[in-house]
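Summary for the lay section of the report: proteins are chains of building blocks that fold into shapes. Here we show the chain for Flavoprotein and then a coded description of the shape we predicted for it.
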Amino acid sequence: MTDLGLVASSCGGLDTRFTAELARPASARGWRLAITLTPTAGRWLETTGGLEDLAATTDLPVRMVGRLPGEPRPHPDPRVFLFAPASANSIAKLALGIADNQALTLLGDVLGAPGITIAVAYQVQDTRVRHPAWQRHLDTLAAAGVRLLRLDPRRSWSVALDLLPAPE
Ligand SMILES: Cc1cc2nc3c(=O)[nH]c(=O)nc-3n(C[C@H](O)[C@H](O)[C@H](O)COP(=O)(O)O)c2cc1C
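The coded shape description reads as follows.
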C-alpha cells in the first residue's frame, strides 16, 4: 500500500463528508492514510463524534497536535499528499510558510521538495476569493508544483482524489 498524507482543515461539511467522500474512497483506491487535521477540524470531529469513523479508515493514528520532544514520529513519510478540504485560512498560511499547527508543519516541510506530489482542494466563500492576497497565495502554491482545485460544495469532494497519481 502506498502512503497518502491526507490533511483537512475546518470547512463546512467536514463532519459528514470528509470520511465518506475522501478518507474511505481514498482507502478503497489503495492508499494507506496518514491523516492530520488542523486543531479546529479536530475539535469539530471530536465534538460531532465523527472521529471514530475516520480513525477506522487507517491503521495509523489521526494526528491533530504536534509530538512532544522525545516522542516517536507517529506517521511514515508519504511522497504524496492531499490537503482537502483546505480552508482559506490554511491556504494563506501554507503559502506564507506559517506552520503554527501540525497540519501546516507537515505540509510546509514538504512543499517544494523534489519527488513530492501535493494536491490541494480548497472550499472557500466568494468573499475570500475577493481578498487582495488570495490569488497571490494560489499562485505561490501553483509555482511550487501544487495541484489545485476549488471544491464545489454541490459536488462530491471525491473529485479531489482524481488529482492524485495512482497508488503504487
Ligand atoms: C460552520 C462553519 C463552516 C465553515 N466553512 C468554511 C469553509 O468552507 N471554507 C473556509 O475557508 N472556512 C470555513 N469556515 C471558517 C474556518 O473554520 C475558520 O477560518 C478557521 O479558523 C479555519 O481554521 P483551519 O484552517 O486551521 O482549520 C467555516 C466556519 C464554520 C463555523
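Put simply, here is one thing we learned. The CA atoms of residues 29 and 166 lie 8 Å apart.
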